[in-house]
Structures are given as C-alpha cells and as structure tokens.
Prior knowledge:
Layout: E1 2-3, E2 10-13, H1 17-30, E3 34-37, E4 49-52, E5 56-59, H2 72-81, E6 87-89, E7 95-99, E8 102-106, H3 110-120, H4 125-147, H5 156-166, H6 174-181, H7 185-191, H8 207-216, E9 222-224, H9 229-241, E10 245-247, E11 250-258, E12 261-269, E13 278-281, E14 285-287, H10 291-298, H11 308-317, E15 322-330, E16 343-347, H12 352-357, E17 364-368, H13 370-373, E18 380-388, H14 406-426, H15 430-433, E19 434-440, H16 442-449, E20 480-482, H17 492-505, H18 511-529
Parallel strand pairs: 1-13, 2-3, 2-14, 3-10, 7-16, 14-20
Antiparallel strand pairs: 4-5, 6-9, 7-8, 11-12, 12-13, 15-18, 15-19, 16-17, 17-18
The structure holds flavin-adenine dinucleotide (FAD).
The site of flavin-adenine dinucleotide (FAD) has 39 residues, from helix 1, strand 11, strand 15 and helix 17.
Amino acid sequence: xxxxxxxxxxxxxxxxxxxxxxxxxxxxxxxxxxxxxxxxxxxxxxxxxxxxxxxxxxxxxxxxxxxxxxxxxxxxxxxxxxxxxxxxxxxxxxxxxxxxxxxxxxxxxxxxxxxxxxxxxxxxxxxxxxxxxxxxxxxxxxxxxxxxxxxxxxxxxxxxxxxxxxxxxxxxxxxxxxxxxxxxxxxxxxxxxxxxxxxxxxxxxxxxxxxxxxxxxxxxxxxxxxxxxxxxxxxxxxxxxxxxxxxxxxxxxxxxxxxxxxxxxxxxxxxxxxxxxxxxxxxxxxxxxxxxxxxxxxxxxxxxxxxxxxxxxxxxxxxxxxxxxxxxxxxxxxxxxxxxxxxxxxxxxxxxxxxxxxxxxxxxxxxxxxxxxxxxxxxxxxxxxxxxxxxxxxxxxxxxxxxxxxxxxxxxxxxxxxxxxxxxxxxxxxxxxxxxxxxxxxxxxxxxxxxxxxxxxxxxxxxxxxxxxxxxxxxxxxxxxxxxxxxxxxxxxxxxxxxxxxxxxxxxxxxxxxxxxxxxxxxxxxxxxxxxxxxxxxxxx
Length: 541
Ligand SMILES: Cc1cc2nc3c(=O)[nH]c(=O)nc-3n(C[C@H](O)[C@H](O)[C@H](O)COP(=O)(O)OP(=O)(O)OC[C@H]3O[C@@H](n4cnc5c(N)ncnc54)[C@H](O)[C@@H]3O)c2cc1C
C-alpha cells in the first residue's frame, strides 16, 4: 500500500457531469482544491467521446439536451464552464416518432406540439389539454420530491405532506396516467415514445420522470458545439485553475472510513491492477459512481448503512435499462438522404412494455446523427441504439474487453447488421453510406463506466424512487456525499443538478437553493453585460 501525500480538500469519485459539477462548484464557491479520480482512460463519464479510424468521433451518452437557450440548466452550464460551452440548436422538428402506420414530427414548441396532437386526435382534445397541464405539474413535483433532502431537516416532513396532498400525479406510473385519461392506443403509445430517455417502459416509469423529459424539450433540443466531449473540456480547466486535479485511469476500490467519517479513498491503476494500491486522503469524499456502487461496493461492509440491505434487495428486483449502441462511420453526409439532424424513435408496434421486455432487438431503435448536430464535425457519423437485457450477454461477463471471443463478436455483428438493415428499409441508401461499424453492449457499459449490469441510467426512475434515503446527497457516513444522476434524475441536466445538490449539501441549510440563485444571478448579469461569468466568486455559503 502506498500513501499519496498531495493535499486536497475533497476527493470526487468519477468524472461524469455530476462529479465535475460538484468539483467545480466546490472550487469556485469554497476555494477548495479538489481531486477528481476517474477509472476510465477518457474523462467525462457518459459525456465522453471516442474516436475510430482517426476521424470518426462518437459520443456515448449525449444526443440532445433541452432548455439550452435560457433557464436554470443553461445557467448552471454557463457558470461551470465560464461561458466556454456553446450550443447548437437542433432542427425544428427535432425528433420523429415512427410507428408501423404513423409518423409524428415533434416541434420545438410545446404549444405547437399540443396543437398537432389535437389536430390528429380531435376526439381526445380534452385529455390532451389536460395532459399538457398535468405534465407541467408532475415535473415540478417530481423535482421537488428529489430535492426534499436539500431542505433543512425540519421542513422535510412538510414537503412530504404537500407531496401527498398535491403531488400524487408524479408518483403514478406513466401507464396508470395514460390509461386513466386516454382511449386511443396509438395516442397513448405516441405520448410515451420518449421512454428511452428515462429507460423504463410505461408500466414501470414514474409519470413525474416522464413529465420531466417531456417538458425538458418543450423549447426544442440542443447539442454542444464541438461534441459532448466539450462539456468536460470546458469544466476541467476551472477545477485545475483553482488548484484541483483531474486524473484518469484510477479506479477507486474503497472509500476509507474512520470512526464513521470518510477520510479518503483507496485506488488502483485501472490498466495495471496488479500494482500496489495507492491511498489518497481528504476530509471530504464525494462519489459520482452511483448509489448502488457506492453503498454496496465502495463503502466497507463494517460501516453501518441503515438501508444497505434494502438497497441491495431493490437492486436485485428492479432491473433498470441497458442498451446496445451501434456506432457508424459514414462515407458521406446523411443529409444526402434527407436527414436534417433530427432523432428518430422507431417502433415495430404500439406496446412499449412488450418492446422493453423483448430480447430480439427487433421491437424498436433510436437513430441519431451527431455530425449533423455539430457544426464542427469533421466526418459524418450515425448511432443506432436499442435497449438490451444484460442477461443476453452475461455469459461473456468474465471475459476481458476485446477478448470476449468469437461468439460474442459474431452476436454483436449480427445485431449491428439487423439494425442497419432495418434503417435501410426506412431510409433507402443508408446502408451504402456505412464505412465503419463498432458496437457496444451492456458489458461495455459495465466495463468502462462501472454501471452494474450496464444500467447506464442508474437507479430506475420508478415511482418509489422518490424520497428514498439512497437518493440523498448526504449519506449516513460523515463527510461522504453522493452526486450525479442518482441523487436527482437520469440525463445530463438531471445529473448536473444532482451535482449542484451535492455541493449544496456541504453549504448549510438551503445551500442548493443559494447556489442555484448565485448561478441564475450570474446568468442575468451575463445577459445584461454580454460578458461570460469568468471568475465569479460570489459566495453561496
Ligand atoms: C446511449 C446513451 C444515450 C444517452 N443520451 C442522452 C441524451 O441524449 N441526453 C441526456 O441528457 N442524457 C443522455 N444519456 C444519459 C446521460 O448521459 C447520463 O444520465 C449522465 O451523463 C450521467 O451522469 P453522471 O455524472 O450521473 O454519471 P456518469 O456519466 O456515468 O459518470 C460516472 C463516472 O464515474 C466513473 N466511476 C464509476 N465507478 C468508479 C470508480 N470505482 N472509480 C473511479 N471512477 C468511477 C465512471 O467511469 C464514470 O465516468 C444517455 C446515456 C446513454 C448511455
């Protein structure tokens, strides 16, 4: 065992957007020197990119983000990146829902979206109008449900009471809500088309989570100029300028705990695991590795976590979502086939629950064209994603990356070919554009990101996720905090707000709300002066 002697005020596990957000806020608001330790050799978590054949760049977990014109998500991004991250608006319409005998283009305007639904389903006008009202309310209540622990302890019971009184809508399943208010099965399916954005089909997903996603895109969708990798590239210099360090290729194997308080972490070199472990000490540890990893793997078993067994049981029962991503390098622009950069959700039928349970990869897929969204792209790419069950690949889970054997490689190729053929049937000429194919499976996600069973959205977005102790940023271990999607909601903005929640938890009562206010004010000043919030030091604490 070796001890690293460098001195840091806090250690953050992982370099996903949640982790980088917390690290940057602690640096900017508290002047802390923060050490970020990432197991992957690429930084950025699910916002990292990888390159193939020297020219094709692929993003692993960002296809679109809502609200990047104004509002709280934009304010946080601007504050963290000091205005260095620019956004490209996606075309209007930004998304297409495709069913066997129905296509629907989603406009970048919630009111127009509602209008088009009413024009298509006039008999359901009242239900559609009510739905647009309800998603707004449910999104607010769902967010509040996850922000309960950001309130002082004395106020939390009040929030729970208010939630029970007014927020019940958010805790229905999507299916319960749709069955209650709509008749047409096609319309019900259409409204749930984006379930892939939260990873659970209508029978399991919370209506509040669904509502967050739907309202997130009411003003359209954006993509980072230069690609998803620009997010980490814009935040990391802020952490480093303020004395911190961001290190890749370091896997945290244990959170060190003494007398009930976190005191540091034990690490191994990811690519050289046989080397002696190295310990890092710091008075605060923040984990962005997800609740399940943190509580069930990183906190030693002798440390009392009152809900550990319950979480372990739930982690077994509630199986979240994993996916197969087919990364395609293209010989020419997909614009030649009439694509404008919009995303396509393509389904073989109207039963999303069935699609989610299916293991044949034929029920549906998502198609995204990053190079048409990114004005700086140097070559053209496409990604086809389909949900997948871990079990289908479990037999190869003991194998090493790139050494899992011919059967595994053959299965990957078969799936990729099936999906390319299906796109070709819809968009003739697509297959001929393909120059390069790479495929990731749930095992890839488990290997690189540490997501148990490749479940990349983390804790499933079910109704009972609300108010659970493991979604809190504060943990039962002194000076140990949780950040990222699991403390708020899946998605880049959800994980980023989770990062604010974790930083806020260290800044006393209402810390989260004060941080959000600081960032909103900085945004207002930027809008007034036209200058980016470069070295803001306004204190939130
Ligand atoms: C295919 C796909 C498409 C997506 N599309 C979108 C989209 O279009 N829009 C959107 O908003 N969201 C999308 N998402 C979801 C979004 O990317 C994630 O929800 C979000 O980025 C999660 O951020 P995070 O900080 O919580 O975690 P992560 O980004 O997963 O970061 C966690 C980090 O911790 C590291 N780590 C784990 N264990 C350890 C350890 N022991 N030691 C050191 N490091 C460790 C991991 O390697 C990882 O880098 C998509 C995700 C996927 C997979």
